[in-house]
Design a protein that fits this description.
The chain starts with a helix and ends with a helix. By secondary structure, it is mostly helical. It contains 8 helices and no strands. It has helices spanning about 5-20, 25-35, 60-75, 75-100, 110-115, 125-135, 140-155, 175-190. The chain has a domain at about 70-155. It is rod-shaped. Helix 4 packs antiparallel against helix 5 and helix 5 (about 110-115) packs across helix 6.
Length: about 190
């Protein structure tokens, strides 16, 4: 069926698409296209500080599970305490490093540590928790950085004038013969 109008229409549409796809896109159009795109949640993987083991395991009778968990908790009490202390030291080191790089978060140090100690937040990276805790002040931080950058730019700015400074003016009518000859030699030397 070569004379089918629907088939001809489809081929012309695909030709148009190929022409549009092959057209060059400017950098500005690419940036706008990227900005307008809505992020796809399937492409984003949440960041964590450690791994979470989701082991379903075999189904255990609830009474047996309580008994087993009680015995295991007693056996691992010392290890659990040591692990908690080690995790606290790791959290402290991560927060210290983060604050060293980003000193504006210094006043939130204890709050960040408190969030890291909470079971629901233990796998969230420090910089995300810092952003959560300081959310109200993030705009202030940005404005302060902008003011500092503007001040630094203003301090490093030149006078803005590239005009040469005028040499000492001499009244040539009253100048000595030697000064006149020196100036004349200077001028003629540059021209010749």
């Amino acid at each position: 069926m070569p004379d089918d109008p629907d088939n001809n229409n489809k081929s012309s549409e695909s030709d148009l698409r190929e022409d549009v796809d092959s057209a060059e896109i400017t950098d500005e159009q690419k940036d706008k296209e990227l900005d307008d795109k809505e992020p796809n949640p399937d492409e984003i993987e949440p960041e964590t500080r450690g791994s979470i083991d989701d082991d379903e395991g075999d189904q255990i009778d609830p009474d047996d599970e309580k008994t087993i968990s009680k015995v295991v908790k007693q056996q691992l009490a010392g290890v659990t305490t040591q692990f908690a202390e080690i995790q606290k030291l790791k959290d402290d080191a991560e927060v210290t490093e983060f604050i060293r790089v980003n000193p504006e978060y210094g006043k939130y140090r204890n709050i960040i540590l408190k969030y890291l100690a909470h079971a629901d937040y233990k796998n969230i990276p420090v910089y995300n928790i810092a952003a959560i805790v300081a959310a109200k002040d993030l705009q202030k931080f940005g404005a302060e950085k902008e003011r500092k950058a503007a001040l630094k730019a203003k301090q490093t700015q030149g006078g803005g004038s590239t005009a040469r400074k005028a040499e000492e003016t001499i009244d040539w009518y009253t100048a000595s013969r030697e000064a006149f000859e020196a100036q004349r030699a200077k001028i003629l030397g540059q021209q010749g």
